[in-house]
Amino acid sequence: MNREASLEKLKSESLDLLIIGGGITGAGIALDAASRGLKTALIEKKDFAYGTSSRSTKLIHGGLRYLKQLEFGLVKEVGSERAVVHQLAPHLVIPEKMLLPLYEKRGLGSVLTSVGLKLYDWLAGVKPEDQRKMLTRKQTLSREPLLNPQDVKGGAIYAEYRTDDARLTIEIIKTASVHKATIANYCEATDFIYENGKVTGVKAIDHVSGGAFEIHAAMVVNAAGPWVDTLREKDKSKTGKKLHLTKGVHIVVPREKLPVTQAIYFDVGDGRMIFAIPRGRTTYIGTTDTNYAGLIDGVHTEKEDVEYLLRAVNQTFINSQLKSEDVESSWAGLRPLIHEEGKSASELSRKDEIFESPSGLISIAGGKLTGYRKMAERVVDLVVEKKFEERKLLSCLTRSIKLTRASFKNVDEVRRYRNETEKRLKVFQLGDYTDYLVSTYGQQTEEIISLIEKGSSDNEWRLTMAELDFCLENEMLVSASDFLVRRTGMLYFDLPRAKRVFEPVMDELTRHFRWNESQREDQGNEIQRLIQEASSY
After folding, report:
1. Omega into 287 within 30° of 0, i.e. cis?
2. Helices (H), 218-327
């Protein structure tokens, strides 16, 4: 993807469809529309996956807890979508057995849990070998010895999938680009252009050069996540239903501080449930779910968020005395849900909704990471119905469009590739990075290894330089935070490494982009601010 070429196209060509928002929803719409044959573009005011789509629990999951709210349709759709998305990127959407402890005095009983999980398996179309398995108390404590045995009466194992939300978003965007979608980050829609009362494009600003220009399109879709209502206000169409933002916080601790043997989904006792998920050298814990009325661009982890999650962990795991100083990193994100009068943050539906404006602007809000593909299909179906029916376009194709170049056929192929890759990385004393590289880049790891082989100096720096060069060449990298936060997840899951490589990364980016002293200082200050926000409360 070439950003300058994309901007030139946006300035000079008239589009069928312009999508505002580079999160998972906008990315899915861009791929769906472009693959059907619509002349499509996507713009994002920050980086791809900057908002909600890099700050989720990083699971492709079916929403087990939504059975409590009787949202059977939602569970059926997102539950069945898990297997579809896994097939599209089996290295990135990875099967994960989830342990669900059952308690005497909190949560649902054994019978209700068993029935609920059975219903969940049925609605989601789970394969027999992955269907729920009920456990005795002894079996539960054997599977996870760290569980506090007090009050545990049994447990269950059920199937989910883990992923990296930002990486999934970026791979979808790259795939949309392969299908000839025009893509640009750091390009903001500042206002709408109208003709006879209908939206025909946007006024935009390039936040890298500062240049302003117009983008013209037959249809415009607002997929801006938490900023959806901000754009509806610009369109003067924010009537009826509106967004209800809730905040979700996750904290990250070194693995040795909470060395769980597998992912665990446990009841807190206040009606919420929390995940503890091992990832590389860390375990991450979340999420909170509280109403949010602050600045959309200023959502942060607060002291009370951290204390809530630490209390939950310390009462659930034996000998766990986690303190705030044990928290290495964190992230806070916003859920753009649909407001329902009288409902708490946790009770609000996660179902998506589409709003049509009298101006022709189409907005989509709500929904879950897992359901991105079906959400996109509904939006593009509507776009085609409104404007392009006479063109006899193809129906949705994304169920069979593999993500990333040189995709894997199945998880067995991923395992074989992983084992072969580990041998090659051990030559450079980088074997410990095998799982990270394969789950992040898939077979694109070949390009990373090729760059490592050409490098010199310290092995960790050779790896970092290889990743950086790959992202600069292929993933529209613009800033240091793009690399350390959204392309690699380093700031969340390997903060010590992020601190070690920070200066060399800044040196290389300064050389590549020809930053002056002031620009380099601004970039460095941004990273220091992000580190401070992630690790201080």
Report:
1. yes
2. 228-234, 303-316
Q: What is the CATH number of the domain that holds 15?
A: 3.50.50.60
Residue 432 lies in a domain: yes
> How many residues can be counted in the chain?
537
Q: For 159, which DSSP code?
A: E
Residues 446 and 529 in one domain: yes
Tokens 């037959």, located at residue: 218
Asked if residue 210 and residue 100 are part of one domain, the reply reads: no
Q: Is residue 405 part of a domain?
A: no
406 within a domain of the structure (yes/no): no
CA 101/CA 122 separation, integer angstroms: 21
Alpha helices in 317-444 (DSSP H): 372-383, 411-426, 434-441
Among 292-306, 310-324, 340-354, 443-457, where is mean pLDDT lowest? 340-354
pLDDT in tens, 459-498: 889 999 999 999 999 999 999 999 999 999 999 999 999 9
The distance from CA 96 to its chain's CA centroid, rounded to whole angstroms, is 17
Question: Two tokens at 260?
Answer: 């769980």
pLDDT score of 347 more than 60: no
Task: Identify whether the C-beta of residue 535 lies closer than 8 Å to the C-beta of residue 332.
Answer: no
Q: Please tell me whether residues 218 and 256 are part of one structural domain.
A: no
Query: Do 198 and 295 reside in the same domain of the chain?
Result: no
User: Mean pLDDT, the chain, as a whole number?
Assistant: 93
Q: How far is 529 from 537, CA to CA, in rounded Å?
A: 13
Q: Give the model's pLDDT for residue 251.
A: 98
Q: What's 529's domain CATH number?
A: 1.10.8.870
The answer to whether 53 touches 419, Cβ cutoff 8 Å, is: no
**What's the count of helices (H) and strands (E) in the chain, helices before strands?**
17, 18
With 0-12 / 13-18 / 19 or more C-beta atoms within 10 angstroms meaning exposed / middle / buried, residue 248 is: buried
Instruction: Output the pLDDT for position 174.
Output: 98
Q: Is residue 426 part of a domain?
A: yes
> In angstroms, how far is CA 144 from the centroid of its own chain?
28
Give the burial string for 138-148 (b: 16+ CB within 10 Å, else e). eebbebbebbb
Taking the alpha carbons of 164, 169, 170, 174 in that order, is the dihedral positive or negative?
positive
Bridging pattern class, strands 14-20 and 40-43: parallel
Q: What is the CATH number of the domain that holds 330?
A: 3.30.9.10
* Phi, psi (rounded to 5 degrees) for 216: -110, 135
The reply to whether 135 and 170 lie within a common domain is no
Q: Is residue 321 exposed (0-12), middle (13-18) or buried (19+ Cβ within 10 Å)?
A: exposed
Last residue within a domain, chosen from 400, 419, 441: 400
At 373-415, the pLDDT tens digits run: 999 999 999 999 999 999 989 999 999 999 977 789 999 999 9
Hey, which residues does 183 pair with through a beta bridge? Answer: 42
| Distance in angstroms (rounded) separating the CA atoms of residues 375 and 233 | 23
Q: Please, which residues bridge with residue 158 across strands?
A: 98
Distance CA 403, CA 395 (A): 19
- Crossing angle for the helix pair 459-474 and 445-454, to the nearest 10 degrees: 130
Domain with 264 in it: 94-162+243-338
